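Table S2 (text version). Query chain:
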Amino acid sequence: MSDTPEQEPDETREETVTPAEVRVRRSPRYFRFMVTGAVLFAIVALILTFSFPENPTYDRGSIFGFLLAICAVVGIALGAVVALVLDRTTARRARSVQADRIDVRVTEPASPPARREGSQPEPGTSSSTQSTTSDTES
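Corresponding structure-token output:
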């Protein structure tokens, strides 16, 4: 098997290789940090709900819901801040490496290839040779 795709015999390929220097660094996944913060602060909301004595005005479910809404927002915000701080610190440790940029240009032939005998026309094109049949009875 070949790594290069087959090309039409009439097509020509031009490859241009240009060396370039690029910076490579690791960056954190922001979404994962925010979800982790939300989950950790949801656990904090659960702990806070059961750490205080029960209130006669509100049941524990409504207290947990209220604390969960507040703690989830705080957790998402703190997770995003932690990810931003980690992103800034990893930007300082970025490395410069040498890379090759490969530009491939395919030039197509000036005229379309001739249709072979017995081949079907492409959809959306009309064929100049259309056959019609008529039934005649004697």
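Notes on Table S2: Residues 20 and 79 are 35 Å apart (CA to CA). The chain has a mean pLDDT of 80.
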